[in-house]
Amino acid sequence: MFEILRNMFRRKLRTTLTIFGIVIGILALVVLGSLAEKMNLMMKGGEKFLTGQISVSSGAPSNEGGNPFASSGFLTQDKIRQIEKVNGVKAVQAGVETPYVDPDKKDGGGISFGAPPTIMGSDLNSTFENVNWKTLAMKSGRMITRGDKGVVVVGSDIATDKKLYTNDTMKIGGKDFKVIGVLEKTMTGPDSYIFMELGDSREVLITQNPTLKDLRDKSTSAKKTLADPSFKYLSPEVQAQIKQAANFNDEDIITGASVSWKDGVDPEKLSKDIKDKVQGVKTLSPADGKKMIQSISVLMNAVIVGSALIALVVGSLSVINTMIMSVSERKREIGVKKAVGAHDRHIIKEYLIESSAIGLLGGLLGLGIGSLIVFSINKMTESSNIQVFQVTPRLAIGALIFSITLGAVAGLYPAWHAARINPVAALKEE
Fold first, then answer.
1. Nearest to 289 by CA among 48, 37, 40
2. At residue 171, what are phi and psi to the nearest 5 degrees?
3. Nearby residues of 333 by Cβ (< 8 Å), 6 or more positions away
4. CA torsion angle for 361, 363, 369, 373 (degrees, to 10)?
5. CB neighbours of 215 closer than 8 A, spacing ≥ 6?
6. In whole angstroms, what is the distance from residue 356 CA to residue 198 CA?
7. 25-29, 179-183, 302-306: least confidently modelled range
């Protein structure tokens, strides 16, 4: 081993530049790869969630009974009841999802790199359970349950950003909510979620949406007009508008629903049945959810592949050049070794170990510098509770294996070339 290190640094500058070439490639692999790893962790959580349920949202426009929400992008209570009646459905949970507008920040936050801060309201009276997400680990307190009102459970990123603890109070939509639980960090969507009861989340949505707030205000006066005897003297067009306004019902504001299936039921077929039998809805089956997430993951993994190619091109050319130059300079030495009995395999082994050692040194330095850059960026964005990169054990070990393999593969031709040297001709060289 000492001899290999001595040979490597006979030409210190050349070897150093070769190692530096590998460092650049591995550094790119670590930095870009850690970005992809962070996103992949988030995608993994999303895939687990989406494959554990059938997601339902408003689909094709319809105009049923003058309901103002039938073509507004909302599901209605009537739609929920229709879904519940589809054969194979075990339970349906209506939900309201809306962005969290932080009263302390004009832009609403930007709490984490990935899923934006979001309010997740759900019907706590439903028996629905996601097949894969039975529960979420609590750092403190408890999860919301049936009967809860005016309380929230916050994700770790929300809690860190707002400095919230169990039993604290936070203002949402102009109203104070008591924090009854804080979630453990998941590295996925729930980290930036605020969980609350359906009615509470619906009220937040209406408060933050001027159109919905106006509709509800008009609904009160429209109902009074309907009861007034003079209503029958109004034009048919005006009557229709008043009836539509009067039909406003808070409970018909549902942004989406989650569906679980009975034992033995094929969720893919059930998803299609819901779409076919309930007019004006669209569904996302577990298979479709998985396909959607995987298509995003492919993009993220392409980042790792691209950065690996950079390392491959830059590093391999440097190693090949250095090793060929080394072979050329040490022909007499190789000749002597072969003359005293060294076999071709001994020569090949020596040069492959040398090139692999160059790859290892470059990999270690590249991993170290890349990790330092990643740590520094994460530290700088820590105050905003944003974590952009994630150096995982898989990435670190992969980077080192890749750098060693790169060195070994790049050294194959020089090693073979060295083994093919004629000892007699080599000894005659000055």
1. 48
2. -95, 125
3. none
4. 180
5. 68, 245, 248
6. 60
7. 302-306
From the number of C-beta atoms within 10 Å of its C-beta (0-12, 13-18, 19+), residue 147 rates as exposed
Q: What Å distances lie between residue 64 and 72, 80, 85, 92, 280, CA to CA? A: 12, 14, 19, 21, 10
Using the structure block, give the residue that is written with the tokens 């979620």. 193
3-state SS assignment for residue 173: coil
Q: What is the DSSP string of 289-339?
A: HHHHHHHHHHHHHHHHHHHHHHHHHHHHHHHHHHHHHHHHHTHHHHHHHHH
Q: What is the mean pLDDT of residues 57-61?
A: 74
**Helix (H, G, I), strand (E, B), or coil: what is residue 223?**
helix
The residue written with tokens 């040490």 in the block is 330
First to last CA, the chain: 27
Q: In whole angstroms, give the CA distance from residue 386 to residue 389.
A: 9
Non-local (6+) Cβ contacts of 256 within 8 A are 55, 56, 57, 75, 95, 97
Residue partners of 335: CB distance under 8 A and separation at least 6? 421, 422, 423, 424, 425, 426, 427, 429
User: What are residue 94's DSSP bridge partners?
Assistant: 257
Is the pLDDT confidence value at 231 over 90?
no
Q: pTM score > 0.90 for this model?
A: no
Q: What type of residue sits at position 287? A: A
What CA–CA distances, in Å, run from 226 to 211, 220, 239, 250? 22, 10, 9, 19
3-class SS at 260? strand
The residue written with tokens 């009995």 in the block is 341
Both structure tokens of 283: 């569904």
- AA letter at 215: L
